[in-house]
Design a protein that fits this description.
It is a single chain. With 158 residues, the protein is mainly alpha-helical. Strands 1-2 form a two-stranded antiparallel ribbon. The relative contact order is 0.14.
């Protein structure tokens, strides 16, 4: 191996992207939602002869998939609603409350400019919060589900 890949090849260590990430559900007040292996699939004994389409439908019906989707919706729905309301409030205020939006804050900076810059700031904060939530609560479970699905479809009929 040293001859082909060099002297450092044997000592090379592959980085595990999940090494630092806590388990799904970590830090939640009610604790992590762990789905036992026997509950993951509704018909585990029948999966040997299923086609790929049937396997994907079976995975879609599984409690593990529903848990990943529920975690996704639990974050995205309120975050999207809050951001949409904030955006609409800014647009409505900019079009109807001219005196309020023209109110000076500091120097030439007025309320409209601060609110407009706030839109950019909240976009970046919401993106950061989404990525963090996905990493802490969904990515590991979704990746495990994907690996299991790929193993199940490896020999399946297309």
């Amino acid at each position: 191996m040293e001859k082909e890949a060099g002297p450092d090849a044997a000592a090379m260590r592959l980085e595990d992207p999940w090494h630092e990430a806590p388990a799904a559900g970590w830090g939640e007040p009610d604790g992590p939602r762990v789905i036992p292996a026997e509950e993951r699939w509704s018909r585990p004994e029948e999966q040997g002869g299923l086609s790929a389409a049937e396997i994907y439908l079976e995975v879609q019906r599984s409690p593990a998939f529903r848990e990943v989707r529920r975690s996704y919706r639990r974050f995205v729905t309120p975050a999207a609603a809050a951001f949409l309301l904030w955006y609409l409030a800014y647009v409505i205020a900019a079009t109807t409350a001219h005196d309020l939006m023209a109110w000076p804050v500091v120097g030439a900076l007025n309320v409209a400019m601060v609110a407009g810059l706030g839109q950019f700031l909240t976009t970046f904060l919401l993106t950061w919060a989404y990525v963090r939530h996905a990493r802490l609560h969904r990515d590991r479970a979704a990746l495990e589900l994907r690996w299991e699905t790929q193993e199940m479809t490896r020999g399946a009929e297309l």
